[in-house]
From TrEMBL, chains A, B:
<dbReference type="InterPro" id="IPR036388">
    <property type="entry name" value="WH-like_DNA-bd_sf"/>
</dbReference>
<dbReference type="InterPro" id="IPR036390">
    <property type="entry name" value="WH_DNA-bd_sf"/>
</dbReference>
<feature type="domain" description="Heat-inducible transcription repressor HrcA C-terminal">
    <location>
        <begin position="108"/>
        <end position="326"/>
    </location>
</feature>
<dbReference type="Pfam" id="PF01628">
    <property type="entry name" value="HrcA"/>
</dbReference>
<keyword id="KW-0805">Transcription regulation</keyword>
<comment type="similarity">
    <text>Belongs to the HrcA family.</text>
</comment>
<keyword id="KW-0346">Stress response</keyword>
<keyword id="KW-0804">Transcription</keyword>
<dbReference type="InterPro" id="IPR005104">
    <property type="entry name" value="WHTH_HrcA_DNA-bd"/>
</dbReference>
<dbReference type="Pfam" id="PF03444">
    <property type="entry name" value="WHD_HrcA"/>
</dbReference>
<feature type="domain" description="Winged helix-turn-helix transcription repressor HrcA DNA-binding">
    <location>
        <begin position="4"/>
        <end position="75"/>
    </location>
</feature>
<keyword id="KW-0678">Repressor</keyword>
<dbReference type="InterPro" id="IPR002571">
    <property type="entry name" value="HrcA"/>
</dbReference>
<comment type="function">
    <text>Negative regulator of class I heat shock genes (grpE-dnaK-dnaJ and groELS operons). Prevents heat-shock induction of these operons.</text>
</comment>
<protein>
    <recommendedName>
        <fullName>Heat-inducible transcription repressor HrcA</fullName>
    </recommendedName>
</protein>
<dbReference type="InterPro" id="IPR021153">
    <property type="entry name" value="HrcA_C"/>
</dbReference>
<dbReference type="InterPro" id="IPR029016">
    <property type="entry name" value="GAF-like_dom_sf"/>
</dbReference>
DNA sequence: AAATAGCACTCAAAGCTCTAGAGTGCTAAT
DNA sequence: ATTAGCACTCTAGAGCTTTGAGTGCTATTT
């Protein structure tokens, strides 16, 4: 869907989009000439605006109001008009400072990153932690908690720790648990978690193990531990978008908040954003989350030393400050990648 | 502040409070007689209402509107009027089912409990996990992640796992790490986490250890692990209170949401609710969180097998369905205690 | 022919007035 | 002590008008 526009039309469209982003009010023809010091008269602008409307780039809420950009206009703006603001020294500093204060472990760091994205952009920050499943196995360990309760602890190369309480069919001594641990650590060394899953499946079918009751127990326990699917996702700064005039209405807000409460669904939806490299921009109905709520999503991937991939970005209204948010997301993704790959 | 009221005044006050809870509209004198089939006339009710207003139990937004209960009235209602609805079989079932599906570990179970509280009450559910600090030490373990990076994993008796990435001054072999782990496990056996903290402090001052570089390293690492303060708190169903007519205003909402984003502050504030046993009710400005937002808080403690204490409850508008929420909170707290103490 | 000035027209938002009716407080009657 | 009756109060909402921002068309300029 290529849009061909004259130089002049582009200037005017840009002016309208930017005005609307700044004010959230329909933009009139004279507002364009006034605020952007263009050389043509408002009458000319009106002609152009009528054109743009016909092309589906603008709409007007009613005859005597100004015009509002459509999704198509935002798309065009983002693709070919926007002049990216370069990120300020101050902002860089803040991102670095807040992302570095890694706290205790990956998950805290990513949460803080999400907060930072939110506070710099004034929209919602979002971070999807790298998938545990595709991370590399590091260590498994069983700790006896009750007579027949064992806590399985699984550590990946990133330093992500998952734990699961397992009910066992009989009681195990600490020594037995250590033994089982050693066996499994050997078995899964160097595999990714998902490969480890398969390996365990295979071993369970192995006849040798089926008759060794302890080994089969060990495999069963580790299977439970390895199938945990708690992939983390951090959405921060939800309160901030209540500021946006388009979300004054309580009903719409509820929609949005509900969508963000079910984090597991969210994860599914966001998976598609992780395929491409670089900054991805989803406008309005293109957004995988809540297509009808007038939201836009700007994301970028980041990578870790164990080659797993995470996602970070900003969610805001379609009428979003693209020119400043895009560089922030871009810079943050690069920085986080850099931190996480520096072993 | 005891309030003495005649039988009749009490009846009328109860009717007004309940009407207002149901409708969120100011209650007029005739509404009281109509909806509650009382024997006196509206004129009588008017006299009584004037009294109640003078006593600070009612206010009217303006002359020709009905009356609204004050905080004081809710307090009195909760203390001496409310007829608690007994919890239905259906609700019990749901609570049991959802709390039991303990998922993998305490933290998931508590999150689901919070969700359950929210969906049954239609307000926000809140659960504060038992303080890690007062739980009993179970196990510590060090896992080598990079050349000078070690992951310390700390498990408490109720199965809570905390982990922290520690930078070490030199590289350690896996054997050394195991050795250090054994030493520390012995040292802290049977202590609570906070006692363990003190023990480590003490050992660090012990001259014997100061000259054994490995022991002093071990102590340092464990000290870092033991001082983690990530107490969990689950607030679920925030979207639900957008339904309440009193929160239609975006400004108020923002206040509230912001308050709940800073979970660490929240924890501090909620500590005071954990001192007393049984169901605690905080109305309006009594609520430790966001005193001015017209919220009420209903909480109850729960206990675990290792004698640590957690808190669960419901947060909603002052105009809350106390008669049904109180039994829900009470029942849930008892149930969770039962589950967590059944080893 | 392209750009612009001018002008009549449109329409929502804001202000204004009026009315209906819900609710009160007082007084007189029971 | 209670209640019926009534005058009074005050808001929410309906209907109306005004205002002014903004448009589209046309005639005029370049």
């Amino acid at each position: 869907m290529e849009v061909e526009l004259s130089q002049r039309s582009r200037q005017i469209l840009e002016a309208i989009v930017e005005d609307y982003i700044a004010t959230a009010e329909p933009v009139g023809s004279s507002a364009v000439t006034r605020r952007h010091a263009l050389t043509f008269s408002s009458a000319t602008v009106r002609n152009v605006m009528a054109n743009l409307e016909e092309m589906g780039l603008l709409t007007s809420p009613h005859t005597s109001a100004g015009r509002i950009p459509t999704e198509k206009a935002y798309r065009f703006y983002v693709d070919s008009l926007v002049a990216l603001r370069s990120i300020s020294r101050e902002e860089k500093k803040q991102i670095i400072r807040r992302c570095r204060q890694a706290g205790s472990g990956l998950s805290d760091m990513l949460k803080e990153t999400s907060r930072t994205l939110s506070s710099l952009s004034n929209y919602m920050g979002i971070v999807v932690a790298p998938s545990f499943t595709s991370d590399v196995f590091r260590h498994i360990e069983f700790i006896r908690l009750g007579t027949r309760k064992v806590l399985a602890i699984l550590v990946s190369r990133n330093g992500t720790v998952q734990n699961k309480l397992v009910e066992t069919v009989r009681e195990f001594t600490p020594d037995e648990l250590i033994h089982m641990g050693n066996y499994l650590n050997d078995l899964m060394q160097g595999l990714t978690i998902s490969q480890a899953r398969e390996r365990i499946q295979a071993e369970m079918k192995n006849e040798k193990n089926q008759f060794d009751s302890m080994m089969s127990q060990a495999l069963q326990m580790s299977q439970q531990a390895v199938t945990m699917e708690r992939d983390d996702i951090f959405v921060e700064g939800q309160a901030r978008i209540l500021n946006q005039p388009e979300f004054n209405d309580a009903r719409r807000m509820q929609d949005i908040f509900q969508a963000f409460e079910q984090k597991s669904d969210l994860l599914q939806l966001l998976n598609c954003c992780m395929t491409a490299e670089g900054v991805q921009i989803y406008i309005g109905s293109e957004t995988p989350v809540n297509r009808s709520a007038g939201l836009s999503l700007i994301t970028s991937r980041f990578v870790t030393s164990s080659n797993t991939v995470g996602l970070l970005g900003v969610i805001g209204p379609t009428r979003m400050g693209y020119s400043s948010v895009i560089p922030i997301v871009d810079y943050t993704a690069r920085l986080v990648s850099r931190i996480l790959t520096a072993t």
